[in-house]
Input
Amino acid sequence: MTEQYQHRARKRFGQNFLHDAGVIDRILRSIHAKPEDRMLEIGPGQGALTKGLLNSGAQLDVVELDKDLIPILNQQFAGKSNFNLHQGDALKFDFNSLSAAPSSLRVVGNLPYNISTPLIFHLLHNSHLIRDMHFMLQKEVVERLAAGPGGGDWGRLSIMVQYHCRVEHLFNVGPGAFNPPPKVDSAIVRLVPHTVLPHPAKDHRLLERVVREAFNQRRKTLRNTLKLLLSNAEIEAAGVDGSLRPEQLDLAAFVRLADQLSEQDLHKPADA
Ligand code: SAM
Output
């Protein structure tokens, strides 16, 4: 156990290690791992969450990028039959390699904040495998994930994540729970992929495109920001008022705009 404290936290790997036993316990209780669970932990670090996850009896794979942490993790956990360590980049990890059944994999992690958004998008591409995800993220990111239409937090991240998942902002965690303390507040979020999408788009890449285009200039009206994709008449045909700003639209309205776009020839310039 003494080696645990000889590792110097590396900023480039986003290393802020949890040391507050109360916070660790609260996170583990929120996850509520069971012996029959198939779990994946991203960035186990020095094992703050790993230990409790393994003690639940769940089958746990972990992916850690920092080679220097591998001996520290192995020393603590290699003897456990439910522990399986992968050294590598979670952004490149093939989740299918865990051969999990549909909607079975439970993903957890106190994520390195610099990769949290691309990692969530990478996981969403495999959302059919995932039962739920529990992440520690920067508090502002959790607020954007959980936001509803009408405010400044509602944007591309909220819409694309809520297209795939139910989002729950569970609780906030202050900087003092970590070593070293980060400069920002953190929060725990639960993401549960929908088994049936509430607002399925005909082509989900077109939804991404409409949302990206709309929020590129979030202060402008939709008829302005979307003019290269849809005419005002096409926006109205989707049941959307072209004089609104993108943050005033809910997910269902964005899906209607994407479906309207899928109706037309994408190479044809939209009428003014
Ligand atoms: N889970 C530990 C805890 O709560 O104390 C560590 C959390 S620390 C915020 C993030 C961890 O993710 C570090 O151990 C870091 O080395 C690891 N990490 C950073 N980038 C990674 C990546 N691309 N893939 C996998 N692990 C990564």
Summary: Residues 1-5 have pLDDT under 50 and may be disordered. The longest strand covers residues 130-138. Strands lie at 17-18, 38-42, 59-64, 83-87, 105-110, 130-138, 165-173, 178-179, 186-193.
